[in-house]
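Bench notes, bay 3.
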Amino acid sequence: MAKIFLQRPNVDEDELKLVEEVLISKNLVEGKMVKELEYLVAKYVKVFHAIACTSATIGLELALRAVGVGVASARPLTYSCYDEVIIPDFTHPATGLVVKTLLACPVLIDVELNTGNATADKIEAAITPNTRAIMPVSIFGNPLEMKDILRVAKKYKLPVIEDAACSLGSKLYDIPVGSMADISVFSLHPRKVFTSGEGGIVVTNNVKFAAKIRAMKNFGIVDNDHIGWGSNYRMSDILGAVALGQLQRLDEIINMRYFLAKQYDKLLKNVDGIKLLNISLYAESNYQTYCVYIESERRDEIIVEMRKLGIEVQIGTYALHELPIFKNTKRVGNLPNSSKLHKHLLALPLHQELTNEDQYRVVSTLKELL
């Protein structure tokens, strides 16, 4: 029986033609394709600035440096473990690792059990005089309640950097994810809805942050002079072409994933032993990941069995405090919801190659194993 993959890149002839155009031009470094990609993202997200880079992790690093966190360009010699950045405990390790990279301190907070997202009240409870930034995550493409988070940030005069790695194409109250935080960062990793293989896009309406990020990703160059810290985080034009082809089909791709997610909703409705994550009635998720909550303690066993049967499934993501690298990281509370999601969430296959028969096979196999 054919393998059902967890995710498949949505690439076709459009991407091949654009890559061929780059190769013919012989301009392989950041150029026409990357500029067009940045333009399309900025236009869709409704922001003034979109800056492509080598990964979302690097994008988050550049964003933190731009707002002055840790070993930032403004303070290149400072070891600043007094700089705290509030992040959700339930996220990919990259969110916390990038804070550690800058010799700052992640502060782990719990998330909502029914959405997987951090909330304004949990963020506010973690703020101290050492807090330098708030970095929430719109997990799995599910939009954050950003208005409430921004209200808290304004109260304490803190910048908000949104780890929107999963969420390009998602909306809340018809407002695109990425348009509200001081800086948001999208990922173009192959597990994401839109991919270039590797890559990231930083978006902001703040002209000063945008200028800093553009300079830092290109050796600190401004007007042909090296005026500050920088490195080489430019995206190649080949990768820009791969992502651009998909961005030109953005609505088509999002609509397809929405349809497949709703099919899962119908098939899984009222299945004993399963809970679905809650998506706000006012949200339009890109469904980067379709997760179900397995109520029993058998989630890991189910993953093994489904893989044996040719169905690629995965955990949702991690509770950082349960990983060795974050064992001694500062946390607020016992983080019970994050721990439960870490141990009980199951990510199901969702991509453009998935057929009705595939979805029935996934759900019927899951039911049998439960």
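Next record in the batch:
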Amino acid sequence: MFNFEGGCYAKVIDLDAEAEPQIYHAIRFGSILENVIIDPQTRVIDYSSDFLTENTRATYPIDHIPGAVLGGVGNHPRNVFLLTCDAYGVLPPIAKLTPAMASYHFLSGFTSKVAGTEVGIDEPRPTFSTCYGAPFMPLHPDRYATMLAERLAWHGADCWLVNTGWTGGPYDTGHRMSIEFTRGLLTAALDGALANAGFTPHPVFKVLVPDGCDCAAEGELDPRATWADKDAYDATARGLAGMFADNFAQYRDTVTAEVLAAGPDATA
């Protein structure tokens, strides 16, 4: 594993020292700000201002982050995380993936474009981007998905699908996952607590949902339980499952039967 960029590039609109302390304190001499408003007299940064755009950014050297491995080289990871932002609010906040599921979701690359990141986006817009980076894949996408599954199996690494999007409903009625909640789930995965939990397959998406976690309230890991209207949840979940199937049709003839069967079931 290696890092050839040697730095970080973060979105900083409404950056808060308590919620994102590492990024907040990394922005100091040696950093570069983009589209961020600074008082010309006091040089105080106004992270809350979207005067130029909501897509405000900061870049800073990797050594501004405490504990960073400056050589950029490490052992094979014990945990691999795929990130998604589900604007429909139907995916669990975290779920374990088998190698076949990891291939399926890596090929699907489901997430949402959010307001302020791209021109013309004023509300979350679901999208599929192969391998979470379609424009940058020189080989056939199935090659990368196969490599991912092989390495997960070879090294016995756990793979997780982490949803940083909405819960309790879609973006217009639910609420966004808090960064503190997501951070707690990641910590539980990294320290092995989640791996030792029981898992229940999601009836539609098939991903393995942890039965509990110290950082989650009862029912908080089950996305259906967070919706007041269960019928609306079921319909929305099946609708998203159908989108997965439609998008994945392009890979139907190139993946194994195991990977194809690992995807969501719109008829469940």
